[in-house]
Design goal:
single chain, five-stranded antiparallel β-sheet
Length: 109
């Protein structure tokens, strides 16, 4: 299992539009997350900085393949039409990244 943390900004003027679909996530989207070996997926919001911190645990062996498969799912693509415009990627992210990955520096069970 691989723990993953990531961060992205959220546009304050449309924060409600980001929160609304997350209050009742579509079952198809939740199924895609589970089918692609992602568990314990959580998104936290930090205001007033308007940062989203995402945490997930990956239980598969091919993260790139699993996430590529999820990205091809029509319902997931539709979901992203609502959520992606609300996000504000960090300027320091690598090219091609939306959410900027974080490095784990501490963990305890």
């Amino acid at each position: 299992m691989q723990r993953m943390g990531m961060v992205i900004g959220v546009k304050p003027e449309i924060l409600g539009e980001y929160k609304r679909p997350h209050a009742v996530v579509w079952p198809d989207v939740l199924a895609q997350i589970a089918e692609n070996n992602i568990c314990n997926y959580t998104i936290f919001l930090r205001e007033p900085e308007n940062l989203l911190f995402g945490y997930r645990e990956y239980h598969g062996t091919d993260f790139e393949g699993d996430t590529a498969r999820m990205a091809q799912d029509p319902r997931t693509q539709e979901w992203w039409t609502f959520t992606n415009p609300c996000q504000n990627p960090l300027p320091s992210r690598a090219e091609g990244e939306k959410w900027a990955p974080m490095i784990e520096v501490f963990h305890t069970d």
